[in-house]
Amino acid sequence: MSPNADEKELAKFSELAHRWWDPNSEFRPLHEINPLRLEWIDQHSSLKGKSVLDIGCGGGILAESMAGRGAKVVGIDLSDKALSVARLHLFESGQQVDYHKVSAEALATEQPDSFDIVTCMEMLEHVPDPASIVRACAKLVKPGGHVFLSTLNRNFKAYLFAVIGAEYVLNMLPRGTHDYAKFIKPSELSEHLRTAGLDAQELIGMTYNPFSKIYSLGRDTDVNYLMRAQRPI
């Protein structure tokens, strides 16, 4: 089975992998939103003592922070360079995360019903078949377990803010980071969840104030949003 990955996307992030843990680099937005998404996950499914899978872990920013909350974390990605950076950073942080180069679909075949929590953040808009990732999440999470996802909405405002604003005006991200055609409407992601047998339980937006330079969670899902789902028992 061919990996559900875009080689150009992998190459793009691999070239920047050595800067993953620099909070002033191209990955600054990930560092700034990480406390928000970490608290959101921990609030709804206490991380301490839980088995957690982080799909598309990259350099390990979220994976390490969840391990810091007492979770037993596995991080998977298809970028060798990102995983190398993630593993190296463990020596600096002292955290324990088990990193593997494997696709979500392959791991779902090997280890179904294995995790209390599955996260897939800022990744779905970078793969050819996001529905396949959602199906893998549904297989990987235990009955009663939670799946946490985040991605970008597809509308004019999202194009204006996430592409034109973030990449060309504010220079928050490298140009070409996002492909607007791959953005996913909440209704589409909800349908993917239902088809995979997951119950969508929460939709929440994430916004950025360019004046205060602060991110926050709220009702505005026009650009960035997060979705929480649960596998029925």
TL;DR of this structure?
The chain is an alpha/beta fold and 233 residues long. Helices cover 39% and strands 25% of the residues. The two termini are 29 Å apart.
Question: How would you characterize this protein structure?
Answer:
Belongs to the methyltransferase superfamily. UbiG/COQ3 family. S-adenosyl-L-methionine binds at residues 37, 56, 77, 121. O-methyltransferase that catalyzes the 2 O-methylation steps in the ubiquinone biosynthetic pathway. It catalyses: a 3-demethylubiquinol + S-adenosyl-L-methionine = a ubiquinol + S-adenosyl-L-homocysteine + H(+); a 3-(all-trans-polyprenyl)benzene-1,2-diol + S-adenosyl-L-methionine = a 2-methoxy-6-(all-trans-polyprenyl)phenol + S-adenosyl-L-homocysteine + H(+). Pathway: Cofactor biosynthesis; ubiquinone biosynthesis. The structure is a single chain. With 233 residues, this protein is of the alpha/beta class. The chain has 8 helices and 8 strands; from the N terminus they run H-H-E-H-E-H-E-H-E-H-E-H-H-E-E-E. It has an 8-stranded mixed β-sheet with strand order 3-2-1-4-5-8-6-7. A hairpin with a 4-residue loop joins strand 6 (199-209) and strand 7 (214-218). Helix 2 runs parallel beside helix 3 and helix 5 packs parallel to helix 6 (130-140). The protein starts with 6 loop residues before the first helix and ends with a strand. The mean pLDDT is 93.
